Amino acid sequence: MNEAEIEAIEKRAYDDAVFATGFSEELSQKCVDKIYEIFFSQNVKNDIVSQKTGIDLDKLFKDKKHSYISLAKHVLLEDPLNIYAISMDANEYEFLRQYLVYGRHLIETGKIKSILIDPKETTAYKKLCSVIIGQDEMKHAICKLGDVFQYSKRREVYNFMPFPMHKVFAFVGPPGTAKTTAAVYFASMMKEMEVLNGSRMAYVTGSQLKAKYVGQTSERVHDVFMKNDIIIIDEAYSLVNYNESEKTDNFSQEALAQLCTEVEEHSNDKLIIFAGYGGDIDDRNNKMKQFLNENPGISSRITFTVNFSSYDTDEMLSIFELQAKNADFSIEDGWQDILRPFFDKRIKDDNFGNGREARRLLELCMTAAAEDFMGWSDKEIDIFEPCDEKEKKFLSTIKLSHLKRATEEFLKAEKAIKGREDDIKGE
Description:
Elements: H1 3-21, H2 25-39, H3 47-53, H4 57-61, H5 68-74, H6 83-87, H7 90-108, H8 123-131, H9 136-157, E1 168-173, H10 179-192, E2 201-205, H11 217-226, E3 230-234, H12 250-266, E4 271-277, H13 287-294, H14 296-299, E5 304-307, H15 313-326, E6 330-331, H16 335-346, H17 355-376, H18 389-395, E7 397-398, H19 400-426
Helix pairs in contact: 1-7, 5-7, 8-10, 11-12, 15-16, 15-17, 16-19, 17-19
């Protein structure tokens, strides 16, 4: 069943409910909004994830056209104490009853059947592919994981002996390779395939698992697992002090001990993703490898490691172009002649930041463009009123001169950073 068919079913159910109740369009829409607000009441918007990845979690997890059939399947109207009966007034509840009639009829008559879902056909996977350039190995890996869980669900039909798959994964790779972004879309994909029990999500870093006082940290870690269905733990290795001359502090030890307990207890009923630096990088910077080697209670529960690779020059050019397009910028012809040699050099640098460098470069381009604009623009204009097409083009174009200044500023900053690092090593 495709998106259009599901959307048509929901529209028919909505029209039937409006007709049966005689509600106005405005009141009917309010009822629908309230129904899905309750249905997704377990979801919590995580601003940290939204800021880090740019993903609108509300939009990702609250698309009603994908949820109507699940709603019709699972709402227990026969139970007088169900959450809808408690949360809605009599008129709203009657609208809900009428809204579910059509969906339940289709389910009961076998016209809607649960089917195997191809991971590549999920909305989440398609969105992932539209926002993440390259990373073919990662994309193949998460689809393979989706296949495994669909395979396991199908085995249940024949009452084969269950072989519970731990839903604990490691997403590892160099910095700036979209590990956290991919983790969020993978979680949405798993939800879409009905592999997860819910979609409440927590994104935390290792340092955020620690509380202010000794004794409170274990409770904080426990709460994260109790209140969420999806737990993405970024840079868990920040809990460990790898300096041989210093010991890991008590707060970190407490967090690690509780984290091992929670992973042990919830590897089947929660989706747990550890994300961080690792994979095909030198051992000195392979922090995930060090972390997992020192925490066998966690590493033994990880079912699969999803590897992310560094970007090549062509991919970096595509990332820069996509980010510029998403920010409503066009780039002056000839831009690749400037950026290709720049990225050819950057990808060989030990401190290469992958996708982050494209974003940083775009920000430097905007800085150069802003300086030019303030020297060109009429200072007497109303800043809130559009002026003309010439100004519009000026505000939406990255010129070659902006790119040249941006790359110079970038390399100058990198040189200063390396100078500080050399000073530290010499002390």
